[in-house]
Write a structure and sequence with these properties.
By secondary structure, the chain is mainly α. Helix content is 78%, strand content 0%. It has helices spanning 10-28, 30-40, 48-53, 56-84, 87-110, 119-141.
């Protein structure tokens, strides 16, 4: 069954997921519903409740908090990884990190251009920075 929601924003995507989850719960029974709810609430999307409100300021506040957490985690992981690397590894990681920052900034500053000047553009850009930073944490954790 295809849902009629066509919004391309992060909020729209979340609502699509929520609608599919609700349909699955109705079809499959309460056990699956409980498991699905637990998976959704496991922190995969820490700002889901804020997004549910539809209030841009609330969403941006949450994304700002998540970005700060992700940035602190990134800095800690970067520092601990640098501490265990030899000189060659440190240089590779440093160069990779500088390149990643340039790519992330270009990608995230361009995010949401379809909402140029609107509040959804800020949400899309902020979401991009949070997601990119969390992805980078995982990449650095696996750096050798």
């Amino acid at each position: 069954m295809r849902l009629p929601i066509t919004c391309t924003s992060r909020l729209g995507d979340y609502m699509n997921k929520l609608s599919r989850l609700l349909i699955s719960c109705c079809i499959s029974g309460s056990l699956l519903c409980t498991v699905a709810k637990a998976a959704t609430a496991s922190g995969h999307d820490a700002c889901a409740a804020a997004e549910e409100t539809g209030v841009t300021a609330t969403i941006l506040d949450c994304l700002g908090t998540e970005n700060s957490k992700a940035d602190k985690r990134l800095n800690a992981v970067y520092k601990s990884t640098m501490a265990r690397l030899d000189a060659s590894g440190k240089e590779r990681l440093r160069n990779e990190e500088r390149q990643w920052i340039k790519v992330r900034d270009a990608k995230c500053n361009a995010a949401g251009k379809e909402f140029d000047g609107g509040s959804l553009q800020q949400v899309e850009q902020s979401s991009c920075f949070v997601d990119a930073t969390k992805e980078r944490v995982h990449a650095i954790e696996g750096f050798h």
